[in-house]
Amino acid sequence: YQRRVRGKKRVEELKIKRERKEKEDEERYRQEQEEMTRFTEERKKKNEERLMSVRAKREEMEKQAEEEFKREMADREKEDERRKQAMEERLAALRKSKMMKEEELWKLEQEERQRFEKEKEERKRKRAEDLQRRKEEQEAEERRRFIQEEEDKKLYEDCLLYTSPSPRD
User: Fold this and answer.
1) Which of 18, 31, 35, 73 has its CA 20 to 30 A from that of 3?
2) CB atoms within 10 A of CB 43
């Protein structure tokens, strides 16, 4: 009889011990899940902050580039105006000297104007190419950052997959 009583007690103790262990495991699993959720939320928040920071920097860089471009355009327009004025002064000096015939003077004026227009068009073309190159570089940088963020997300998700606890462990 005592053996049975001891056996029953032992079985009940083991049952209680197993239930306690299961509760502890469930509690540990719940805590780990909460910690993982909190970690995931913090990571999302950091990623959003980083994205906002990158966007703000990009917008600031675009504004600076636009302002720089406008300054360059204004400087080049001033330079064009100065060159045009110098050309007009040279032509006026030639007219005054009366050393050239009317036809030669007309040809010279035409050549000067054509050369001036060609230079102006060449500068415009170079400015447009420079602006296009800057835009392409910015887009390439954005694509590189996006790809890097996606790779980070994949690595992070893989990491969570293999570190998540299992109640069977």
Assistant:
1) 18
2) 14
Q: What is the pTM of this model?
A: 0.39
Residue pLDDT, tens place only, 47-79: 899 889 888 988 998 899 889 888 988 998 899
Block residue for tokens 């995931």: 40
Residue 123 burial class via C-beta count within 10 angstroms: exposed 0-12, middle 13-18, buried 19 and up: middle
What distance in Å separates the CA atoms of residue 101 and residue 99, rounded to the nearest whole number?
Answer: 7
Which ranges in the chain belong to alpha helices (H)? 2-97, 102-163
pLDDT digits (tens, 9 = 90+) for 114-145: 988 898 899 889 888 988 888 898 888 888 88
Which residue in this structure is represented by tokens 């954005």? 142
The rounded distance, in Å, linking the Cα atoms of 159 and 156 is 5
Report how far residue 101's alpha carbon sits from residue 149's, in angstroms, rounded to the nearest whole number.
Answer: 72
